[in-house]
Design brief:
By secondary structure, the chain is α+β, with helices and mostly antiparallel strands. It is built from 22 helices and 21 strands. Strands 6, 7, 8, 9, 12 and 13 form a 6-stranded antiparallel β-sheet that branches. Strands 2-1-5-4-3 form a 5-stranded antiparallel β-sheet, with helices on both faces. Strands 15-17-18-20-19 form a 5-stranded mixed β-sheet.
Length: 742
């Protein structure tokens, strides 16, 4: 009996040991499978994250290339090339990540072909922009081939992502099943044998620690992603389909003045002014309607005032391709806008310089040219911009001894090699007339380098002085014997004159840069406090308006009206400042059309008033349409304003032939008029003959009129009598085209 019991105990022990060994073996195998499955889960997360990185890189490539196409700024081009290089690195990472999956490798191969195709198209447009300019690049973009290729790239990436998300779901399910199986075996082992249970527990604990480490790594990856989003200088957010915020980064929190926990679940209407909220909501609707991303310029409120942002907003899709949310990245482009404006100001200033200048790239293609140079060479800006200098101005084929091209090429090469200015002797370089024939010309050229921060030459300024009349006069008065000596003397005189002109132009350049900086400072530094005043007055009216008495509300209205008046004054000052530096673009202009446009502009001011118009015959003139439009706007606006106390008001517009080959226009009204002893003040800056509470205005409009008409070679004057109306006159050089008034 005893032996039997011992045998049973031994058998039971042996069986327990065998069961423990079996359970232990099964438990170890199951937990090993769990670890492997979790490793595959982590791997799948890595593949999905890399795919999202790829989309971000491709979007960056598109953004930088588009920035270069729009602005021609080399910084955008460098950023584009850097982003393009990152595409290759990303595809190599993806190649390694999908080595275990033949289907994904095949999809990646197709994706790489699409990406290569898209990059080729992007490079082609960059070359088009470099070779032919922004208009040609815009035409290339409008073809739409790149958009279709990029759509295929997105579909390919989303298809790979959907596959990985499917694998992720499958592997997570397998991981859960393996974990449950392990727990069952552990419980069974604990019941059968405490020792086996302890051993199994230790083994499971070890494997669970591995799993915890894997989960911690995934969590840390999420934290890294969160930290990256928080440290991006732009705004990043995600919304559900109802427009409620699901995620915002730190920059969003700072501008909203709220924590992300407070923002989550709210809509843009809860945290932004109505006008901005409606714009953002329209973008959300556009994404859902088009099922694709949108790129827009929007306004974002900063503590110091509104700023322009460039935003890319896009749909987020689940594994089935269904949109479940939208995301957005919004970047401050204030500095870019400033640079663009400065570029425009500088170009306008350069083109209006009195000297004959051409700006060349190191490849000798023309990137800018002054009006004086165009006039001297009988060319138009659109004919020569973007062309190589010697293609635009070839040698005279009928002059076998011509050396202008050869000598100028040698001088430009010296500048490129030495990075120093090169002053040339007088050159005979004939100019092709519009009819194709050549005209004999003599020039005194100076070629000066413009270097970048790295010391390399970025541009060459080619300045010339037309000395044809001087040379021909000297030739005609000199005999052959002393012709050479006279030419040498003439070259020395012109050289000295050229040096003086160059020094004067450099001083002019410095002064104009200071003027541009001052204009920008006026525009920016004065507007900012005005925006603050208007903004805080509005907030005060909304928050404390009901509690204020009539006197305090009147105070707020005076503050608000004064801020608006100051803003209008700044605008008028900037217009007045720019008026003398803007390029004068003459062409045939219909006076009747400009008058009708001015009358239509002031329709709101005419509501409820009876105004009798008398318009005579108005001629077509040779003028700058934009500038002359400003003249008509000011004169018609004044006539309407200063006659509003009359019923009916009478406004007469007409034109008579002057005695000096000019057309004399007049705008007459029966308004309040003015005292003729103050007539000299009318066309001065800030000179007003009426109080601001009687008639609004800044006192700059008529000063602009005089400056514009003066630039056109005309005159301005006025006649008036108190309470008997006023007549304002301006003259322009006469043309032979006339149109009837209405």
């Amino acid at each position: 009996m005893k032996t039997s019991i011992e045998g049973k105990i031994l058998l039971g022990f042996v069986m327990s040991v065998l069961v423990l060994i079996g359970i232990g073996g099964l438990a170890y195998r199951t937990t090993g499978s769990l670890v492997e499955t979790n490793n595959w889960v982590v791997h799948t997360y890595a593949v999905i994250a890399s795919l999202e990185d790829g989309l971000a890189i491709l979007t960056d490539v598109e953004t930088k290339q588009r920035g270069y196409l729009l602005t021609g700024d080399e910084h955008f081009l460098n950023d584009y090339r850097a982003a393009r290089t990152r595409v290759g690195g990303w595809t190599e990472v993806m190649q390694k990540l999908v080595e275990d999956n033949p289907d994904q490798r095949q999809r990646l191969g197709t994706l790489k072909l699409l990406i290569d195709h898209r990059l080729v198209l992007l490079d082609d447009r960059v070359r088009v922009r470099q070779d032919k300019g922004v208009q040609a690049a815009a035409v290339a973009v409008a073809v739409g081939e790149g958009k279709e290729v990029m759509s295929q790239v997105w579909r390919a990436v989303l298809e790979m992502k959907a596959v990985e998300e499917g694998l992720l779901a499958q592997r997570q399910a397998e991981a859960r099943a393996a974990a449950n199986h392990s727990l069952i075996l552990i419980v069974a082992g604990t019941v059968l044998a405490a020792v086996a249970g302890v051993m199994a527990l230790l083994l499971i604990r070890k494997d669970l620690q591995k799993q915890a480490r894997a989960e911690q790594e995934v969590k840390e990856s999420g934290n890294v992603l969160q930290a990256m989003m928080d440290n991006i200088p732009g705004i990043v957010f995600m919304k559900d389909l109802q427009g409620r915020y699901l995620f915002v980064n730190r920059k969003f929190e700072q501008l909203a003045g709220r924590s992300r926990d407070d923002i989550k679940g709210k809509t843009v209407f809860d945290i932004s002014p109505k006008e901005l909220a409606e714009a953002a909501n329209d973008h959300q609707k556009q994404i859902l309607a088009t099922q694709g991303p949108v790129e827009v310029e929007e306004t974002v409120l900063y503590p110091e005032g509104p700023r322009p942002h460039l935003a890319v907003k896009f749909p987020l899709r689940d594994a089935t391709g269904k949109i479940y949310a939208t995301g957005g990245i919004s970047t401050d482009i204030t500095e870019r806008k400033k640079i663009e404006q400065l570029h425009l100001h500088f170009r306008a200033l350069f083109e209006s310089l009195p000297g004959a200048y051409v700006v060349l790239k190191p490849d000798l293609s023309i990137v800018a040219v002054s009006d004086a140079y165009l006039a001297a060479t009988m060319t138009r800006r659109d004919q020569i911009l973007g062309r190589v200098l010697f293609d635009a101005f070839p040698e005279n084929p009928e002059d076998a001894s011509a050396t202008g091209v050869t000598n100028l090429m040698a001088s430009l090469n010296r500048v490129l090699q030495t990075a120093t200015a090169d002053t040339m002797a007088i050159q005979k370089y004939d100019i092709r007339r519009p009819d194709g024939s050549f005209e004999e010309r003599y020039w005194s050229p100076v070629n000066s380098p413009v270097t970048g921060a790295d010391g390399r030459i970025e541009y060459i300024i080619h300045r010339v002085e037309d000395v044809t009349d001087f040379v021909l006069q000297k030739k005609g008065s000199a005999d052959k014997k002393d012709l050479s000596a006279r030419l040498e003397q003439m070259e020395a005189e012109i050289f000295r004159s050229g040096q003086e002109v160059q020094a004067t132009n450099e001083k002019l350049h410095v002064v104009n840069k200071e003027l541009e900086a001052f204009s920008y400072s006026v525009s920016h530094d004065l507007r900012a406090p005005l925006r603050h005043i208007a903004g805080f007055v509005d907030l005060l009216q909304k928050s404390a308006g009901p509690a204020l008495d009539e006197k305090n509300r009147r105070y707020l209205k005076i503050i608000n009206d004064s801020a608006g008046q100051m803003g209008a004054l700044i605008d008028d000052l900037l217009v007045f400042s720019r008026m003398s530096r803007m390029e004068l673009r003459r062409g045939k202009v219909s006076s009747v059309a400009l008058l009708d446009e001015a009358r239509n502009t002031f329709q709101n001011d005419l509501k409820g008033r009876q105004v009798n118009w008398k318009v005579g015959t108005l001629p077509e003139v040779e003028a700058d349409a934009a500038m002359l439009r400003q003249v008509w706007m000011n004169l018609i606006g004044n006539a309407i304003k200063y006659s509003r106390t009359r019923d009916p008001a009478e406004i007469e517009v007409g034109c008579d032939a002057g005695g000096n080959g000019e057309d004399v226009f007049h705008v007459r009204d029966n308004g309040v008029g003015f005292d003729m002893k103050y007539v000299d003040k009318l066309f001065g800056v800030f000179q007003r003959l009426h109080r601001a509470d009687e008639f609004e205005g800044t006192g700059i409009g008529l000063a602009n009129v005089r400056r514009i008409i003066s630039r056109h070679g005309g005159r301005t004057w006025a006649e008036g009598e108190i309470n008997a109306g006023a007549t304002f006159y301006f003259s322009l050089p006469k043309t032979n085209h006339e149109t009837k008034g209405s």
